[in-house]
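Weekly puzzle thread! Below is a chain. First person to post its structure in token form gets bragging rights.
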Amino acid sequence: MTIEVPALRLGLAGYTEAQQKAAAEAAMAASGARASWQLGSFAESDAWWLEGSRTMLMPNQHLRVQPAVPTGRSVQLALADVDRPVAFSLPMAAPGFQPAITFELADKAAATKVLHRFADLMQAMLSQFALASSLAEQQPMLNSGSWEVLRDKDLLAVVDLRLGAGVMPGVTPADFEQASWCVRNHGAVVIPANYPRLSVSQLMWQYAQRTERDLLPPHYRTQKLYFRRPPRLPQRQLRDAHLLLMRELAEQPGMDFPALQQSTGLGEAQLARCLSALYAVGSITSNPKRATASAGPRLSGNASQAPTSDQSQFNYSMLNATRPPEIRRQQLDKTAPAPLLPEFYPRSA
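Winning reply:
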């Protein structure tokens, strides 16, 4: 089995068309066995490059990056609030501002080295992607117990619907090629304290945003679709397109793929990708018996039943997972465009 590598997106601000071409070449050169790099939209990218000569330090200590192309827009940000790696290409125009990472864009080796450094900073996410890819490939029945992913005697990862998922620091896609998924009784596993940890929903959502694999079952392109429940994710991770799709399916259950295209205005590829992400975390279904029947999402169906063709093993397991009591008791918000749960993270071991 060959585990895929994620595509990391690099956002640019303040660059000319020639500079953008140089950045794209550096991204291609930095692609390798850990991850591939490609240019992406600024807001949705995993890391940013900012042109230092067009960067201004504002009185409120925010940075403003002026556009270098006629169709470009300026970017303003507060570095203290940035949650991704950032580097500035020299020269710097802002007096007194000393960024942590700088490089010469004309020096391809130096630019490539910065992207390798970015990948080091995102190693936990890269390891989590490798685990999710293995999960999607192996399709374990998650609600049948807890799972340990072993390579010989090494514990690469633990996956449990209640505890969440934990991955050994530094694990690469190659480590999962010869790994085995071993089921354990519920409560029989412990996620080591030094393993970066996240919920299974977060694991699969993060994977769905970066994989080139088509996660959407073929019949989801032809059959009627229904809203199942909101993703158990921090609200900030949902994009407008995901919220729009959930709203449409919540208000008009039974829309099919062409109808969703027409009502949302999304292109075929974008719609399929957004539906794939919602499918991967159990938020949509093609089975009307599993659809939300009231204003608030509910869990339905018998967890002891075998999964139907409507869902993969991991998707079925997440649909039937018991909702934590503190979330089950809360009133769900159904302000437009869709009902959302508060941020949810797995409990500590």
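Puzzle host: Confirmed. Bonus trivia for everyone else. Residues 294-313, 316-349 have pLDDT under 50 and may be disordered.
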